[in-house]
# Entry
Amino acid sequence: MNQGLLNRIVALRQQGFSHGEIAEKVGCSERTVRRYSHGVTPQLELPRQHERVDVLTVRVQSILRARTRLGLDTRETDHLIKALRKALEPMDSLAIDWLATDAQARRDFPA
# Structure
């Protein structure tokens, strides 16, 4: 067993390969792989974190993008943005967090 082979075994184990798969790849027994990779656990992928967004900012941007299409003047746009802010103010922090991380919820939000 040389250092290069040992490094390859450890790297394959960290990538999530089983002992048997590594043994086939490097050409040694599964027992040898187990012995040299003892204590090396496969790389686990954490669940993807949802991207947090500022709900007010995202909704204001969508209003501004749709402004021309909807034929809104500056006063009407301002009124919509103020109404959105009022709709968000009384919401509890859990609801705001939910809207901040769930794109579908933001699309369904009525304001």
Remarks:
- The radius of gyration is 27 Å.
- The longest helix spans residues 55-70.
